[in-house]
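Following up on my earlier message about glutamic acid. Here are the inputs again, as you asked, copied directly from the submission form:
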Amino acid sequence: MSVVTRFAPSPTGMLHIGGARTALFNYLFARRNGGRFLLRIEDTDRERSTQAATDAILDAMAWLGLTPDEAPVMQSAQAGRHADVAHEMIARGTAFKCYVTPEELQARRELGEEKRQASKQDGISDTERHALLAEASSLLAPFRSPYRDGGTPPTPDAPFTVRLRAPESGSRTVDDGVQGQVTIDASEIDDLVMLRADGTPTYMLAVVVDDHDMGVTHVIRGDDHLRNTFRQVPIYEAMGWDVPRFSHVPMIHGNDGAKLSKRHGALSTTVYRDMGYLPEGLKAYLLRLGWSHGDQEIFTDEEAIRVFDVSGINKAPARLDLDKLATVNAHFIRLADNDRLFDLLYPFLTTDGAIGDEEARRIRTALPHMKDRGSTLIELANAFDFLRAKRPLELNKNARKALSDEGKSRLKGLQDELHRMSQWSDASISETIKSYCAATGLSMGQIGPPLRAALTGGLPAPDLAPVMEWLGREETLARIDDQLAG
Ligand code: GLU
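Thanks, got it. Here's what our run produced:
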């Protein structure tokens, strides 16, 4: 059997990071098993689905590199097929036409609620209370239609829904890849609506028909769908279709253990892009969030594809830990190819407008040596401020202190030596500084601070010799001249 997985988001908003993790698990499972990973946009809810949301989901998935193996299936385009299946089920006797109207159902629920409230009142006998509770629970129980076994329409042309004949009795078990054996009583399953009175399919029917038609063998999705599985399996059975292997993944929680919400951090996948996370960083973090393989913490895509399995998914909800995400991301920044990293960094360098060629040159040259200077692209972009500062540099308090008269006079001597240099490299600059110190009896601790102040204005920067190489001879000397002339 060739493995087929799918990710089936509803296009009603952004791609939630929980959804991104589900997509990743499906992607990795398909890759691991040499199968196919498919995408289905579940746009049956016409009121809440938007093209903008579909685009946002596709954009986020493309950013993460979770490219489906075939063009996305739009669920709404299959509506005719869904209706055909519902009618075939009527012919097979596994579904039926139901003439109960939504108003009647509503009235039934309200009556159930009234009885439930009434059972709580004081001054009634236990017998009355039990009777009320029994009535309430049967009215509020999963709906079993009076038309299950036939029955004539109230009027010849009365509108009808098509409902599944839910399993009669006994218990129903799903053998879930993550949750293990989950059993419920058949009475908990209702005669669910598959086609509405206007002939449109419901989600519960559409998802089953589409998964069957797409050849899906493994459904990995959020555990908020676990209960739906008990309503979906009977549809497969009614049609005589193979039931896929289900795995329901626990939700992501916040660091306090509560359901993930905005106050815990961003929910939208692409906001992590905007915050300067690399796609491989976010993916590696999401992978470990709820899945483990031995005690390995960080996986590249290739490693994950080699070892991913559903059995490694944890049963308990995982907690979002932004510090850990930053650590993982920092790791992938260090691993990133320099040219690609520059391109990824570019938008963060240009938030205040384009950068000139000379600035870009300096940053490109410095980048391979600066990769450990930020755990996000925003931090990394800021780490280049010292290369980008405009002359004459603004000095912070420490830099002003370092450029005291004494500091300046030390710098003056070095300036002359630097002017004389014929070759400009990290190594030759180090050599010049060392021999200047040796000749004057100054220590690095005496010359370093004024030099650093002149070159950076007090902005954080790494070792000075490479900084001077990256700035280039002209800019270095000009920055020093600015301070000595002043
Ligand atoms: N469209 C559903 C959702 O967004 C997913 C359904 C499924 O994976 O079966 O939650």
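One observation from looking it over: The two ends are 78 Å apart (CA to CA). Hope that helps, and feel free to reply on this thread.
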